[in-house]
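On clarity, I found the account of how folds are encoded harder to follow than it need be. Since the whole study asks how a given chain folds, the encoding of that fold should be made plain. For the editor and my fellow referees, an illustration may be useful. An entry of this sort, consisting of the sequence and the corresponding backbone structure tokens, reads as follows:

:::
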Amino acid sequence: MKKNTAVRKMIYSAIAAALYTALTLAVAPLSYQAVQFRLSEIMVFLAFIDPWYIPGLTLGCFLANLMGPFGLADAIGGGLATLFSVGMIALTARWSRGGKKGSFPSLLAASLWPSISALIIAFEIVFFTGAQESYWYWVVMVAIGEFGVVTVCGVPLMHWLYRKKPQLIELLKIQQ
């Protein structure tokens, strides 16, 4: 049986969606503040490992935001922001293959995309949810949360996994 089946891709993607949603909801008070401290955001590095995680991560963010305080507007806007950031993370990983994939500089570069996606998230929060704060307030607040979780916490973790646990990285690859 071929390891690279459509069923395998769907299962891994569904697991990623479920885990992202569950982790976001598990720390719900922190996940939906102005500085969103979502532990689930570390999972965006799954797109660095394999781009087939992109649909699951996008769906997970959509579902987590749908259950959050901003509802459908945040689900759509946050889902689009996640799609953008994980797509760019996957492209960053692809570009780094000429160098050393999993190197600290490639992970650091990939980690910045979620902070950049704060531009999208802030737009939907201000213009579609009726938030009273300014657009730039939300850009800064969301970017701080993304940078803290993904860059400050996620990059060292992923760098360690690539160096010390390469068998786990291989196990997480959908396309073997």
